[in-house]
Amino acid sequence: MATINMSAQDEQDKWLADASSLVKQYAFYMKRALDDNNLREALKQGSLMLGELRTIALSPQKYYELYMQVWNELRHLEAFFGEEARHGKSNLELYELVQHAGNILPRLYLLITVGVVYIKSKDGAAKDVLKDLVEMAKGVQQPIHGLFLRTYLSQASKTLLPDTGSEYEGNGGNVNDAVEFVLQNFTEMNKLWVRMQHGGGNNLHRERREKERRELRDLVGKNLLVLTQLEGMTLELYKGTVLPKVLEQVINCKDDIAQPYLLDALIQVFPDEFHVQTLDAFLEACPLLKPTVKIGNVLASLMERLASSAQDNPEIVAQFVAVDAFGKLSAGCKSIVASQPSMDAHDRLQMHAALMGFVTAVHRDRLDYVDDVLGACADALNAPGGGDEKDSKENSSDERVDRGGIEGGAEDAGPPMIVSDQKGARQLHALLAVPLDTYDVVSVLGLSNYPRVMSLLQPANLRQMAMTIVKSVIREPEGAVSDATQAETLFRFISILIKDREGVAEEVDEEDFEEEQNAVARLVHALQSGDSDTQYRLLVASRKHFGQGGPRRLKHTLPPLAHEAMRLGRSLLARARADSEAGDSGAVLAAAVATGPMGPALKKILQFLHQTISALAAAPVSRHEQAMRLFLEAAQLADASGMEPVAYEFFERAMTIYEDEISDSAAQRSALSCVVGALHSCVGFTAESRESLVHKTTAYSARLLKKPDQVRAVADCAHLFWGPDGVDGAARDATSTVTCLKKALKIAGGVQQASLGGVGGGGGDALRLFIEVLNKYLYFFERGCPGVDASILQGLLEIINGELAGEEHGVAPDIQAYYGATVRHIKHQKLKGGEIGARYQDISL
Q1: Which of 46, 83, 592, 836 has the fewest CB atoms within 10 Å, counting from its CB?
Q2: Is the dihedral of CA 528, 531, 532, 538 positive or negative?
Q3: Taking the mean position of all CA atoms in its chain, how far away is CA 558?
Q4: Three-state DSSP class for 419?
Q5: DSSP label at residue 786
C-alpha cells in the first residue's frame, strides 16, 4: 500500500512539473509581448498559460500550487491592461475583446483581470461589473476549476467593493450591492464544493473526495471573512440579509461536511455582539440540519466563543442577560437533542459541557442555572431520577451516588447512556468538575441533579470523580464543610472511596488506592467548625463512614481522625484552663478541669479517641506503632484533663500493643522512648498507678535485646523519677533516678568489656554510650537532683578521656564532635555564673 501511495505522489509531482514548465514558457512569451506592447500576442500567450488550469489530473493541493504560479503571472497582465497608452484600447473595448478567447476558463480569468482594471478606472460601475462577473463565472461548473476561479474573483475584487466609505460607493453602488455580490459568490462556491461529494465510485474514492473537500473548505469560508471586513456591515444588515441567506444556503445544501463547517465559520468570523442579537435565528436553524451532522459540536463552539467573550469583556455580559442568552441556548440544546434521537453521548456531553462553561462565565451568581444544565444533561442522557417528585429525588440520592441501582425516572426515556469509554468519561468528568471549580463544593453537591449526572459514570470513572470532589474540598478555605449534614452529603458522593460496594469485588491498583486514601485522610482536616459541639458531630459522622471502610482503609483514615479529635480536646482544655481559678499547672489544675464545665465534653472526646484508636489497633492491616503513639498522646490529654483512670487505660493499651505487636529491636527502642516521654509529662496519677506504669517501662528497657539499646532506654527511664520542673505533682525520686543512671553506666561498662574481649561492635560503641550517659548526668546535675554531683561527672569524664587516649585506630568523627560539643557545654556553664556556674566549678576538664 505504501508503494502505491508513493507512486501516486510521484505521478502528481510529475504532472505538476510538466504544467508548471508550460506555464513558465507561456508566461515568458506573454511578458515579451507585453514589453513589445503587442496586445493580441499577449492575450494569446496569456490564454495558453491559463489553459493549463484546465487540468483535472492534479489533486487540490497540487492544483493550488499551479494556481498560485499563474496568479503571480497575471499581475503583469493586469498592470499592462491598466496602461491604455501601451495597448491603445479603452477598458470597455478590452472587456469585450477578452471575451473572444477560445476556452471558457481562460476567457473568464482574463475577463476578471480586465474587470478589475475596469472598476479601478471607474469607467464602469462597480456593482454592474461585479454582478456581470459573478454571473459569467457560472459558465465553469467543474468543481475545482470553478472554486479557484471564484476565489480569484473574490480576492481580486475585495478592495473594489462599493463599501461604506469606499471610493467606489455612490455611482458604483452601496454596501448592499457589495453584500449581494459576496453572498452570490459564496452561494455558487458552496454549490461547487458540495458537488465534489457526488462523484460516484467506491468507499476509497469517497474518502479521497472528503479529504480533498476538507483541503478546499477555506476557499468557501473566506467569503464570510470578506463580509466581516466591510465597513458598512452593521447588525441590522447582518440580521436582515447576511444571516438569513447564509443559513438558507447551509440548510439547503444538506451536506455533512459543509453544514457544520459553514456554521462554525459563521461563529468564528462575525462579532460576538452579532451572535448575541441573532441567537433565535441561529438556534432555529440547528434542528433543520441533516440528522447525521454533529450539530452539538457547532453549538458547543458557539457557547465556548460566547463564554470566552464574557471572560475577556465583562461589559458584554449585560447583553447576554438582556436577551436571556442562557434560556435560548438551553432551549436550543433541548431542541437539538429532540430533533436528533440518534445523537451519541459524546455530542450530548460536549454540548452541555459548553453550556455549563457559558453559565459559569456569565452567570456566576446563578447556581440554579448550574442545576438546570445538569438536569438537561441528565435528561439528554436518559439518567434516572428525572421525575418531578422532589421526595423521590431526595430519597434516592444515596442510591444514585452509590450506584447500587437507581429507581424512578422519566417514563419511556429509554435506557441510561452509561458513559464507559475514555473520551466520554473525560467529557462527563469535565462537566461535573466545572461547577466545583467555580462555586463552593457543598452548594454544588446539594444540587438535585448533580447525583443524576454522576450516576452515568462507571465505577472506575466514578472513583476519579470522587477524587476530584475530595481535592476540591481540600483546596477550599478552612470550614468549607462546617456541619454534620454537609459532611453526610459529602460522604455520600465519595462513598466509593471510603467503603466497598456490596457484593462487588473491585480491583484497584495499589498505588491508586494509596493515593485515594491519603486524599480522604487529608479531607478530615477540611471538616472544620468554629463550634466545638458541631466539630464533635463532624468527627462522629466521619467515624461512622470511615468505620465501614474495611481494614485496608482504616489504617489511612482513622489516624487523622484521632489527631483532629485530640486537637479539639486540646482546644477545650486550653479554654478550661483559661477559665479555671486553680494553679498554673499540675494535678490541681487537671482536677479543676475535670470537675469544670468542660469536663463532660472532654470525657466524650476521650471516649471517641478510645473507640477510634482501638479500631485502628484491632484492624488486621494495622500500623501498630502508630496506634501505640496515639494511645500515648490520648493518655497525655486525659492526664491533663484530670481523668486519671482513662489515662491509665490508654497507657495500658499502649503497653499491650508494645508487648504483643512490636518485635523489631529498633522499633522497640523507639516505642520505649515515646512511652517514657509521655509518662514523664503526666502528673495526675496516683502513686500506685504511677509505680505500676514505671515498673513496666523500666522492665521493658532492661529486656531489650541489644546492650546499647538497654543503656539508652534505662538512662531514659531516669526521667520517670524526676518530672518536669515547676509542675505541681511532678515526680521527685532522686534515689531511683540515680539508680537508673548507675545501671545504664554499668551496662555501658559491660559493652566496653565485651569490646575488649573481641565481642560486640568495638570500643567506639562503648565510648559513644559513655558520652550519652554523661549527658544524662549533666541534665539531672543542672536540675539539682541529689545524688548527682560533680565527683560522678568528673569520674565519667576521666573514663571517657582514657578511652579516647587508648583508641589505637582513632575515634570516629561523629563521636569526636559529640564529645567536643559536650565539653563546650560544660565550659559554657562554668563561665555562666550564678547557681549553675557554682555547681560546675568543681568539674575539671
Answers
A1: 83
A2: negative
A3: 28
A4: strand
A5: T
Q: What is the largest CA-CA distance in the chain?
A: 131
Q: What's the rounded Cα separation, in Å, for the pair 280 and 473?
A: 39
Give the whole-angstrom CA distance, residue 814 versus residue 134. Answer: 95
Taking the model in full, what pTM does it have? Answer: 0.80
Tally the residues of the chain.
845
Residue 566's nearest CA partner among 641, 500, 490, 476 is 641
- For 131, counting Cβ atoms within 10 Å of its Cβ (0-12 exposed, 13-18 middle, 19+ buried), the class is middle
Which tens digits make up the pLDDT trace of 86-142? 877 888 888 888 888 778 999 999 999 999 999 999 888 999 999 999 999 999 999
Check residue 507 and report its DSSP letter: -
Alpha carbon dihedral 520, 373, 307, 217, in 10-degree steps, equals: 110
Could you give the CA distance from residue 467 to residue 460 in angstroms, rounded to a whole number?
Answer: 11
Q: Which triple of cell numbers denotes residue 483?
A: 456541619
Task: Convert the pLDDT of each residue in 42-51 to its tens digit.
Answer: 999 999 999 9
* Residues 272-289: tens digit of each pLDDT: 999 999 999 999 999 999
Separation CA 625–CA 672 (nearest Å): 11
Lookup: cell for 839: 555547681
Task: Measure CA 368 to chain center.
Answer: 24
**pLDDT band, residue 808 (cuts 50/70/90):** low
CB-CB contact of 593 with 660 (8 Å): no
CA distance 56 to 293: 30
DSSP string, 604-671: HHHHHHHHHHHHHHHSSS--HHHHHHHHHHHHHHHHHTT-HHHHHHHHHHHHHHHHHH---HHHHHHH
- DSSP structure class, residue 477: P
Burial call 431-466: b when 16+ CB within 10 Å, e when fewer: bbbbbbebbbbbebbebebbbbbbbbbeeebbbbbb
Q: Which residues pair with 457 in a beta bridge?
A: 419
Residue pLDDT, tens place only, 289-339: 998 898 889 999 999 999 999 988 888 999 999 999 999 999 999 999 988
The three cell numbers locating residue 750: 559491660
Nearest residue to 154 via CA among 173, 171, 133 = 133
